[in-house]
Design brief:
Helix 11 (659-684) packs parallel to helix 14 and helix 12 (692-706) runs antiparallel to helix 14 (724-754). It contains 14 helices and 44 strands. A hairpin with a 4-residue loop joins strand 10 and strand 11. It is globular and about 100 Å long. With 761 residues, the chain is α+β, with helices and mostly antiparallel strands. 22% of the residues lie in helices and 36% in strands. The structure holds (dicuprio-$l^{3}-sulfanyl)-sulfanyl-copper and dinuclear copper ion.
Length: 761
């Protein structure tokens, strides 16, 4: 202790007299020297560092890979801002632990079975006229073919739909230019009929690929399942897709691999899939007239498979809505240029990217100029007749994204671990940059849209090997931020992503997102409708009949109403809770000991948890978010009583409060009121009404103060009866409301001071 004190004194003296360099403030040069940074590093830091309180220009939505979640982060800071539970239960948000989200997850059950994991690959932001509109996000699950809908007003998953005919998917989610449809394509071919077995010997005849067009109802914010349909496709391992836009609107494009239709079989002495699926020099780009397909389905030309409309291949061929074009070799990505004129395909085993001209494709179709038919009778258009150009980029080209600058594209080179910048109009390579290591997807700002924003590129690297401090054999993935605003690309930042393998990400201008701060009181956030279990303050109740106990409760700092729930063993218990807070960021959580339930209840939301009280005993419940100074006291007891248990007459223990205690509490209330009055005086002396956030806080504080009236009446009534225990406790409750009001008031005052509020005269 003594030596510490001596040290502290020395430091103070040194600071006061400027003695010794160790204690002087470091200059930028000092820091650069100490941390071994060069000019370039400092420039990168300046381009990415986001000071406290400042926000990012873009928001990225990344697939969470095998976590089945979505990861939200800011660009250029690369700060992770949220994880969103999508295909997988996510405890923080109560996702999969409250009844409302369980209903969403249940939409993703397949063959009546619960699936608790997902392999999420491709997120897509909703578009209006080919431009990101920031309203919805879609993402697919490859392992269990499903599509999820997230609403960007609250960043919550609202719907999961399971594909009715596929066993896997990869090419999803991609949206048409006005989000009329969300596209999902099968990956590994299988029989389309549910639970139908055919041997691999019948692969060519009975196994099929396909493409599903999920109808999106923007007003409802949900996929309209009955209005959705699919197109039967050959068993060619359809891979990624993209929708045409501008001149190519109405068409969609899907690349494929393994058009060899190889079925593997190492154990039968055959070469493995990797050999058999890459034997041919070309695979097929699928060209589909989806607008015409919609009409055909409306005309009743689809066949029902598993209750779902499917346009069969022979219909598609007869009606002229499905064509193939050879594409080299084992391709992976397909991307339509922002102007909608070209379709870019990259072959994993070819060093080129191929740029197809939409005009040329249309001309060939119109002229009926086909080089052949595939085994299923689908017309094949000659590659030479449709190519605009081919550009040699490097080894393992995969995905392409676009710049705000005309004709400029970026393609990931998996094997070379590079990003190539090139011009798709004149076919020239412009620049290359190395990334670490093995880049899969890449993403530019709004790089899928008709009007990309340029500025930044993120390389989604599959390996990170030596980039970060080692954490055992399983490494995080590495998202590298690259500045693309100049001729030469510049690497700015490495972000480890430790939550599955994020395949793809999309980024949108932050100003386009308009998330809410609270729900209308009593909202079921998963349906966006009023929750039947919602109640207002004072309406809380517990109903019990026929072995079912239903609690209608509320949450507000810092108590749960009710605080005691009594049930009999074997009862089915449903606890509905409404968060009555209006204050921003005042979330309460809720759990009951050992019953495996949890809810995150944001201001205005109503959530419910349900369980069978199958164990006798005493189970505390509590709020799981540190919401206020008395958060730990935000608690209650679930009493699970033995069958037929009779209450005794024993009274609860009383605390021996006296009149003196009551008077002391009253004094505390008066002092606190003086603080509140001075804060209110400060706020109202400024132009606070010009600050919407402060107006909200003032409303919240007033809400809290309004609650004191009832508690005051109660303590005065008790005092009149000389019941000092009740009088003192209700007076304490008045004080608690005051503390919360004062807390909000002080936050408002600080906000005004920091944001340049002006004094009114
Ligand atoms: S994947 S590395 Cu999109 Cu699933 Cu390409
Ligand atoms: Cu509410 Cu802690």
């Amino acid at each position: 202790m003594k030596s510490l004190a001596v040290k502290a004194t020395a430091v103070l003296l040194a600071a006061a007299f400027g003695v010794g360099t160790a204690y002087a403030a470091e200059s930028l040069q000092d820091v650069m020297k100490r941390r071994g940074l060069n000019q370039q590093d400092v420039l990168s830091a300046a381009k990415t560092y986001t000071p406290s309180g400042k926000r990012d220009e873009f928001m990225a939505f990344s697939s969470g890979g095998q976590s089945g979640q979505v990861i939200v982060y800011g660009i250029p800071s690369m700060r992770i801002i949220k994880y969103i539970g999508v295909f997988t239960p996510e405890p923080w948000q109560g996702y999969g632990y409250d009844e409302e989200s369980k209903a969403v997850l249940k939409g993703g059950w397949i063959d009546g079975k619960e699936i608790t994991w997902g392999d999420s690959h491709h997120p897509a932001i909703s578009e209006t006229n080919g431009q990101y509109d920031g309203q919805f996000l879609f993402i697919n699950d490859k392992a269990n073919p499903r599509i999820a809908v997230l609403d960007l007003r609250d960043f919550e998953t609202k719907q999961i739909v399971a594909n009715p005919i596929f066993k896997s998917d990869h090419g999803g989610a991609f949206v048409t230019p006005n989000t009329e449809y969300v596209i999902e394509t099968a990956q590994y071919a299988a029989p389309l009929e549910a639970k139908k077995f055919y041997p691999l010997e019948e692969f060519n005849e009975k196994y099929r690929g396909g493409i599903t067009f999920w109808k999106f109802d923007r007003t409802a914010g949900r996929i309209d399942v009955p209005k959705s349909f699919s197109l039967e496709l050959p068993p060619y391992s359809q891979d990624l897709s993209d929708a045409g836009k501008g001149p190519s609107d109405g068409w969609s494009f899907t690349n494929s691999f393994c058009s060899e239709r190889y079925v593997g079989g190492i154990e039968r002495g055959r070469p493995p899939f990797e050999a058999g699926c890459s034997a041919k020099d070309t695979d097929y780009l699928h060209v589909i007239n989806w607008k015409k397909a919609v009409e055909l389905v409306a005309q009743g030309k689809a066949k029902k498979i598993n209750g779902h409309d499917v346009l069969m291949m022979d219909t598609a061929v007869k009606e002229g809505i499905l064509f193939l074009i050879p594409e080299p070799k084992s391709p992976h990505g397909v991307d339509v240029t922002p102007d909608g004129k070209f379709i870019i395909v990259a072959g994993k085993l070819d060093t080129h990217v191929s740029v197809y001209s939409f005009d040329k494709i249309m001309a060939a179709i119109k002229a009926g100029k086909f080089e052949s038919k595939d085994p299923y009778g689908i017309p094949v258009i000659g590659m030479r007749d449709t190519l605009h150009t081919q550009v040699e980029l490097g080894l393992g080209p995969l995905h392409t994204q676009f710049d705000s600058k005309k004709c400029v594209a970026y393609t990931s080179l998996y094997v070379d671990s590079q990003v190539a910048k090139w011009n798709f109009c004149d076919g020239k390579v412009l620049d290359k940059i190395s990334v670490h290591y093995n880049i899969g997807h890449l993403m530019t700002m709004e790089g899928d849209a008709a009007d990309p924003k340029g500025r930044y590129l993120v390389a989604l690297n599959k390996l990170s090997i030596d980039r970060f401090n080692p954490v055992g054999p399983l490494h995080p993935q590495n998202h590298q931020l690259i500045d693309i605003s100049n001729d030469k690309m510049q690497l700015l930042y490495d972000m480890p992503l430790p939550l599955g393998e994020p395949h793809y990400a999309v980024a949108i201008e932050a100003s386009k997102l308009k998330p809410g701060v609270r729900y209308k009181v009593g909202t079921n956030s998963r349906t966006d409708k009023p929750h039947p279990g919602a109640v207002r303050a004072g309406e809380e109740k517990i109903e019990s009949k026929n072995g079912k106990v239903t609690v209608y409760g509320t949450l507000i700092r810092s108590h749960i109403t009710p605080e005691i729930i009594e049930v009999e063993v074997g009862d089915e218990v449903t606890i509905n809770l409404t968060n009555l807070e209006r204050a921003q960021d005042e979330t309460h959580g809720f759990t009951v000991s050992t019953y495996n339930v949890h809810a995150s209840i944001e201001p205005g939301k109503t959530s419910s948890v349900k369980f069978k009280a199958d164990k006798e005993g005493v189970y505390p419940y509590y709020c799981t978010e540190f919401c206020s100074a008395l958060h730990l006291e935000m608690q209650g007891y679930l009493l699970v009583k033995p069958k037929g248990w009779k209450a005794t007459t024993k009274e609860m223990a009383k605390a021996a409060y006296t009149e003196k205690d009551y008077q002391a509490t009253l004094k505390k209330i008066a002092d606190t009121q003086a603080v509140i009055d001075s804060v209110v005086g400060f706020i109202t002396s400024t132009n606070y009404k010009d600050f919407p956030d402060v107006v909200n806080m003032v409303e919240d504080a007033t809400d809290q103060l309004n609650k004191t009236a009832d508690a005051k009446a109660k303590h005065e009534a008790a005092a009149a009866k000389k019941d000092w225990e009740q009088a003192n406790l209700w007076a304490e409750q008045v004080f608690q409301y005051q503390v919360k009001a004062a807390d909000i008031g002080l936050r408002a005052k600080t906000y005004l001071e920091q944001n340049g509020a002006k004094k009114l005269k």
